[in-house]
Amino acid sequence: MKTVVQIWLSEEGKEIVKYAMKVQNKVICLPPQQAKYTPPQTETPSEFSPTKSWKPGTYTTPTGKTVKVAIFTTETGEQWVSSEVPFGVVKVVEQGKDKLKLYDFDFSGAKREISKTELETCQVMQFPMPGMTPIG
Q1: Are 21 and 3 in contact (CB under 8 A)?
Q2: I need a surface site. Which of 12, 49, 72, 118 has the fewest CB within 10 A?
Q3: Nearest 5 degrees, angle CA 44-CA 48-CA 52?
Q4: Is pTM, for the whole model, over 0.70?
């Protein structure tokens, strides 16, 4: 199932103005105070330390873009990460099954998959909801 996440930041890039997700053509939003944005880290998170067991690899998106990845073994599977993509996460494997795969990415010229109208009229999701927790 394809899920699109779109974050609109303030002009300074420090605060979330809107956080929206599109799943099966339905757009839902989190109130800005419930969505947490942490600017990209300048240091490697401890769970992806080069001192931990990892192997190099490559990943090709369904749209044909290939990136170098570091594949870390976890208790339940693998985490594939790359400094070549926004947010760094490329693939998550749990118990032998793909749980998340990067479909596509771009740094400029990307088209929005959640329109301005959809974003302005999205259904606001409030927490707590059964089985879900706020981001962060």
Answers
A1: yes
A2: 12
A3: 125
A4: no
CB-side neighbour CA atoms (13 Å) of 126: 0
- Strand arrangement, sheet containing 26-30: 3-9, 16-23, 26-30, 123-124
Going by C-alpha positions, the residue among 107, 53, 64 that lies closest to residue 84 is: 107
Q: Where are the domains of the chain?
A: 3-36+46-124
Residues 68-118 pLDDT 10s: 999 998 888 999 999 888 778 899 999 999 998 998 887 666 677 888 888
DSSP β-bridge partners for residue 54: 72
Which DSSP state fits 112?
Answer: P
* Cβ contact 68:82 at 8 Å: yes
**Tokens at residue 86, please?**
């926004």
